[in-house]
Amino acid sequence: MQRQMRHEWASVIVNRDQTGEGMRAHDGLRQRRVGGLELRGKVDRHGGANGARVMVSDGQVLPTGGEVGQMRENRPVTPKTRLAQAVALHQQGQLAQAKAIYTSLLEDDSAHADAWHLLGMVAYQEKNYTLASDLIQKAIAINPGMAGYYSNHGLVLRELGQFEMALASYEKSLSIRPGVAETYNNQGILYAGAQRYKEAIDCYDRAIAAKPDYAAAHYNRGNALFQIRQLPAAIASYDKAIRLKPDYHQAFDNRGIAFKETAQYAKALADHDQAIRIKSDYVEAHYNRALVLCDLKDLESAEVSFRQALSLNAGYPFLVGAHLHNAMQICSWQGLSASLQSLRDQVRGTLPAASPFVVTGVLDDPALHREVAQIYIQKRFPQNEAMGTIKPSTAGQKMRIGYFSADFRNHAIAYLVAEMLEKHDKNSFEIYAFKLNPGPPDETSARIFAAVTQVIDVSDKSDRNAAQLSRALNIDIAIDLGGHTVDSRTGIFAHRCAPVQVNFLGFPGTLGASYYDYVIADATVIPEDQRQHYVEKVAYLPHCYQPNDGQRAISQRVFSRSEVGLPDDGFVFCCFNNAYKILPATFDGWMRILQAVEGSVLWLLDHNPVATRNLQREAQYRGIDANRLIFAPRMPLAEHLARHRLADLFIDTLPYNAHTTASDALWAGLPVLTCMGVSFAARVAGSLLRTIGLPELITDTQAEFEARAIRLAKDPSSVKAIRAKLLIQRETSPLFDAPLFARHIEAAYRTMQTRHQSGLPPDHFSVAG
After folding, report:
1. Does the pLDDT at position 315 exceed 50?
2. pLDDT at residue 15 above 70?
3. Structure-derived torsion over alpha carbons of residues 706, 711, 716, 720, reported in degrees to the nearest 10
4. Backbone conformation region of residue 297, classed left if phi is above 0, alpha if psi is from -120 to 50, else beta
5. Which terminus of the chain is more exposed, N or C, with fewer CB under 10 A?
6. DSSP states of 342-360 as a string?
7. Helices (DSSP H) in 394-462: which residue ranges?
8. Would the pLDDT of 69 be above 80?
9. At what angle are helices 283-295 and 249-261 packed, to 10 degrees?
């Protein structure tokens, strides 16, 4: 999910003076949640904020609306009064009427520079930026000494993506009239849009020096400080903006985001609430409030805030997806079809409807996944070449591999990679762990950090600074273990932190960005006929793409069925997948299975009380006694693995299969039955089962899946035989052979580096088994 933030532009400067502060600026903060923070914005479409007066020429101040009314009663109507009338209409948002007067002035006097300039600003507000630039340049040609013309041209050039020309335009404006705070502010936003945050902060500081009570500059300074992870300083800047402007709803909202990032959730919630009190229809605040509630695990209240945001603007970026994911986490399926249709419609219009992670969980459509990922990347993390071309790696030295993750802790990703990291060939490779999360150490992080050459904590660094550090360390291949998941840092890779960049493990699909060279996979999760749906080239490992730890401890504790709430008799179906993976179609199938197998129960994780209640209600709605759903509380991993022994068969979800949960079950000796779909996420359990030698537990249709589950439940001897086979295969198959996996992935890294050093572009390849 993406939190929403805004910057604030200075409003339209007619020429040598300013109209006061305006609203909202550029796209820009980095990803922090399932996707992360999203800074969005638009230029305010009106001027004249805070009663500022506009100057059109030396010493000539435009009248207010009331003064214009008096002028209309006076005759004759001069060009000056006609211009005043037009500007008053312009400031009131009546662009067509203002345009008509500006045009008539030019018909009478084609050298009327102010009319050309203001007509250009109408075009700018109508988003006709090319025309706006042409019109303002006519004004500049007539009167090249007007600072405001250049400043406003800078706004237009920014929208046209002409960074250097926009910067030159601001510099020209300041050379004519130094010390204009609003020009410094807009120049700062231009730098921030290019992710040159230190230069942006310098501009905001100049704006504040020129105008200490300039609330918008303090606010924008806070946004830039947030970008470079100086969160206390960012909060201090927001504080100043709010003191200067107590009704500054954007500042309250953005400070709330900063509080959330520092885990000050009560303060975050209070700030979003205050933003809503000031401006009840402020969709961003409702959205960000919902995200705080998600972190607080108050998913029911989050649902209310998401719905309020949708009622205000159903097309707001990423809102449909964020709401959909929250609803899936509490198994609230009412309106699911409408949400999915809205998502498809927005994607069809190339609108940013959802993060790729959300879509992967609800739709088995690799083509759509690629489209969503590319929209997401273009909106939030386009390629940034400001750091220049990266130095190619040097042959003959130890290869330096950088693993980037927010999950070097007690987390599924860490459990999977721990032994692989330990088994890397340290004579040929130097292994760097780039830590993206500032969380406290635990036994898993201690194990991982002991296995690597060096731990680099970049949790408090900007994306650019983190990428610079990676370059300075001469990392040859950078591995993104997060992808589009919680707390990942795609922006680091957008800066090209290593000559070769790889999507691996954390996200099951394409990341949608050309700056990722490879995705590590296997022939099951990405069949050759599906490669067109991946922006990356595919590096195929010979067995399963997923590493596993063959040293994971399973508690010796022996659980009884009654101890965990299971019946002493009857077949126990089990699924310990996350609640958001349970779609209505999956649940329908499960209930049909229970209906067909008398005395059977379904053992699920107790994710949250709301999901539990909803699933119980959905079971009853389908004619199944709610007591046949048993909910398991969370417990330490070793004990959780041990209690798997009480289940008879793990039944999977679609389109987002069991991934780590499937390898957990197999390691614990519990057979997994899956239905294999089309997309990467829908084929992972199939890959695990093929690798461990249990292809008989893979089905291809929902009907086959249900029939197989029922047949197995009614034939206990067949389940017993499969279980015995699994226990043997667990010890002998490649699935839990971490040393073998390390050799295979190292071979993949060597192929990637050899191609790069030979000047060859990335291409698909397979590692020999």
Report:
1. yes
2. no
3. -70
4. left
5. C
6. HHHHHHHTT---S-HHHHH
7. 412-423, 443-451
8. no
9. 20
Q: Is 579's pLDDT higher than 90? A: yes
Other CB atoms within 10 Å distance of the CB of residue 12: 28
Length of the chain in terms of residues written: 769
Q: How far is CA 294 from CA 260, 352, 731, in A?
A: 11, 21, 41
Q: Which residues pair with 2 in a beta bridge?
A: 36
| 765-766 vs 649-651, strand pairing mode | unpaired
Are the CB atoms for 423 and 738 separated by under 8 Å?
Answer: yes
413, 383 Cβ separation under 8 angstroms: no
Q: Kindly state the tokens that stand for 558.
A: 């022996």
45 pLDDT more than 90: no
76/199 Cα distance (integer angstroms): 51
pTM: 0.87
747, burial (CB in 10 Å: exposed 0-12, middle 13-18, buried 19+): middle
Residue pLDDT, tens place only, 717-742:
999 999 999 999 999 999 999 999 99
**SS3 (DSSP) at 652:** coil
Sign of CA dihedral 20, 21, 26, 29: positive
Strand runs labelled E in 566-700: 572-575, 601-605, 629-632, 649-651, 672-675, 698-699
Residues 6 or more apart in contact with residue 714 via CB below 8 angstroms: 597
SS3 string of 657-691?
Answer: CCCHHHHHHHHCCCCEEEECCCCHHHCHHHHHHHH
Residue type, 436: L
- In the DSSP assignment, the letter for residue 764 is -
Tell me the per-residue pLDDT of 369-398, one tens digit each, with 9 for 90 and over.
Answer: 999 999 999 999 999 998 999 988 776 689
The terminus-to-terminus CA distance of the chain in angstroms comes to 39
**Which residue type does 668 have?**
A
The partner residues of 434 in beta bridges, in order of sequence, read 404, 456
CA angle centred on 594, ends 590 and 597, rounded to 5°: 135
Q: What angle do CA 494, 500, 501 make, to 5 degrees?
A: 45
